[in-house]
Amino acid sequence: MSNKIKILFIVNPISGIGKQNKFEEILKNNIDYQRFDVEISYTQYAGHAVEIAKNAVNKYDVVTAVGGDGSINEIASQLQNTETALAVIPCGSGNGFARTFNIPLKPDLAIKFLNKAQFRKIDTCLINDKFFISIAGVGFDSLVARKYEEMPTRGFKTYFKAGFNSFFKYKEVEYTLIYNGKEEKCKAFLITACNSQQYGYDFKIAPNAKTDDGLLDIAIVHRPPLYRIPFTAISVMSGHANNSKYIDIIQAEELIIKGNDCGFINLDGETIKCEGDLVFKTRKQNLKMLV
């Protein structure tokens, strides 16, 4: 009887900036076949990864998302509370979730990383009834995600353009926050609940967030004056967002946000409609991961 780890790679052929186009060849040249029994499946339409992952539970030891944060979200949502583990080969544009675990961004190096990876448990989260694994929030970041989805190209330049074009038009919104037994009102440019550290591109909005502590790191970002924007951006990029006077970070197991009148949220880099009060919750260490 084989002691190999049975692993399925789910490849999104149109994710991100196309690093997965030669994935089969790269996998063949780098995977440890003494450790893994390998199969590959390609998604053919939106939501197909969910179906493949659901059918893979208990048939495989590991299901690997070969794509961006959106693909990881779809696959992980089906693996939570099971013995089938998640693994990640980052082929998206921002790759925020993979960067949190220091997974290499080149597919060949990510596969070699996987060869030596170990199993561990991590947290997952909900916003109302919607699953997320990395970040979810309201405000400016949900607008940027929406604009980014509408653009014909991917990558940092496109993401920066989406943010820059939206920045001058977007105003702070007044929200009511309920967390840790208290209620407070605040005006914010954006509010993001983080299980992992960053949006992507090393933009670490919650540098001290941990994926296995049962807590959300909630970043409340206030609009900086124009002349302070470069300094605020540098503090976030350098992993010191918690030291910025325009960013407050709190920790809680649960957060309720009232006042998201636009009705959109950023959910692991994708924009979705979610109207009414928003309830963010963590579920501690309910996802197995090979990392």
Helical amount: 25-40%
Catalogue the unreliable spans.
Answer: none
Q: Could you tell me the mean pLDDT?
A: 92
User: What form results from the Cα inertia axes?
Assistant: globular
The share of residues in extended strands comes to: 25-35%
Radius of gyration: 19 Å
This entry's quaternary arrangement is: single chain
Number of helices: 8
DSSP strand tally: 16
Query: Within the largest sheet, what's the order of strands?
Result: 6-5-16-13-8-9
| Helix-strand category | alpha+beta
Blueprint (SSEs and pairs):
Blueprint: E1 5-11, H1 23-30, E2 36-42, H2 48-56, E3 62-67, H3 69-79, E4 85-90, H4 96-100, H5 107-115, E5 119-127, E6 130-132, E7 135-139, H6 140-150, H7 156-167, E8 173-179, E9 182-188, E10 190-194, E11 216-221, H8 229-237, E12 247-252, E13 254-258, E14 264-267, E15 270-273, E16 278-290
Parallel strand pairs: 1-2, 1-3, 3-4
Antiparallel strand pairs: 5-6, 5-16, 7-10, 7-14, 8-9, 8-13, 10-11, 11-12, 13-16, 14-15
